[in-house]
Amino acid sequence: MAAWLPLAGVRVADFSMFVPGPFCSAILADLGAEVIKVEAPDGDPGRSYVPVQFRTENRNKRSIALNLKSPESEKIIERIAKHSDVAIEGFRPGVAKRLGIDSGKLRAFNPKIICCSISGYGQTGPWRERPGHDVNYVAAAGALAFPGQWLKAPSRSSLAIADMAGGTFAAVAVLSSLYEREKTGKGSSLDLSLFEAVFFWAAMRHSLDRNVDPRAHLFPVNDIFETSDGKRLTLGILEEHFWKNFVGVAKVLGFDLSSERFSTDAKRRANGDALSAELEMLLRQKTAKEWLELCDAHDVPVDLCVTPGDAAELEQIRARKDVAGVGGERFATFPVFADGARGGELRRGVPRLGEHTREILVELKFDDGEIAQMVSSGTVKVG
User: Fold this and answer.
1) Which of 55, 68, 162, 178 is nearest to 114 (CA)?
2) 271 is a domain residue
3) Domain match, 291 and 188 both
4) Pick from 246, 276, 304: which residue ends a domain?
5) Which of 127, 158, 273, 356 could cross-link 121 (Cys pair, CB 3.0–4.6 Å)?
6) How many domains does the chain have?
7) Per-residue pLDDT tens for 57-91?
8) Strands lying side by side in the sheet with 232-235
């Protein structure tokens, strides 16, 4: 069955760097959009800062190396704008305008283009020019105020929460704008703040109540525990029938969890510190493999903490074909099916810096002489 590629024919110019913008355009590319990655002659800094994530986020794209500070770049930008349905940039407010790729300039070239600006704190407000990175936005938005485990202090995730949440919201906004354009014929200028993306997530999870219970989202039986072989296991017990099933498993091992103080969810939470300590001792009695077998046999939600590389070998991932190869590398595929068809497709590998510069310039109707002049002047770089 052919892949589901609802964005086939949509053309995206991505001027952004690092994670948020490239993550957004990766989603669009996976779903069929043609994405041109516009990089400086030295390349996206993400190529060296976070090379692993650079590669995962930039498959399915073509690269043109363009010096936006060169006066000659304007005629290339104009043709890119006229060629594109969507443009993405991720600079601090004001920088895109200095480089000639702001929404005002691009929409003057093409009134139908959708321009998405992704920045730390947004294009307006007193924090608009404030520097920051993912950990700053996550902290300021309230996402580090609450613990993730019953007996542990709040900690930072290895995932770039703000960057990836922002990239996801940007993709949603772009798709919404494309839908709106179908009705109005007009493009739009989108202002996406990474800080606000996390604030939205945190507020949706914890509300805006300053006195909200910091453990309101936690349950002592829905946590991470270490097993006898040093591995970490997650129990996902919320519903009462799962708890009763687990009590039966514990009883087989000589642990009595059927006391009155743990008899209801409210009592388990009220006595959560004691229960969590007992569960820690209990889980250390068996290996991870033994626990997986016991819990699976008694219908208790359980999973092992693994790396994405480990997860790629799981039978569920294999059955759903959630990993595919392109360009000699393996990648996770877009996680949605439509009418039984895989959503998204890996069509090309990760581009070298400027690998498609000449190809793209030819598509933009520049002739060989013009291209040679651009290369000679340093306006573009051919990879």
Assistant:
1) 178
2) yes
3) no
4) 304
5) 127
6) 2
7) 999 999 999 999 999 999 999 999 999 999 999 99
8) 224-226, 232-235, 302-304
Q: Are residues 42 and 177 in the same domain?
A: yes
| Three-state SS at 212 | coil
Q: Is the pLDDT of residue 1 over 90?
A: no
- Asked if 156 and 15 touch (Cβ cutoff 8 Å), the reply is no
- Alpha-carbon distance of 308 to 293, in angstroms, equals 22
| Residues labelled catalytic | 163
Whether residue 275 is found in the same domain as residue 370: no
Residues 293 and 335 in one domain: no
Across residues 334-345, what is the average pLDDT?
A: 96
Which of 355, 97, 332 has its CA nearest to residue 89?
97
Span 357-367, average pLDDT: 98
* 319 sits in which H/E element: helix 315-320
Asked, for residue 72, whether it belongs to a domain, the answer is yes
Residue 277's domain comprises: 232-304
d(CA 192, CA 184): 22
Confidence of residue 206 (pLDDT cuts 50, 70, 90): very high
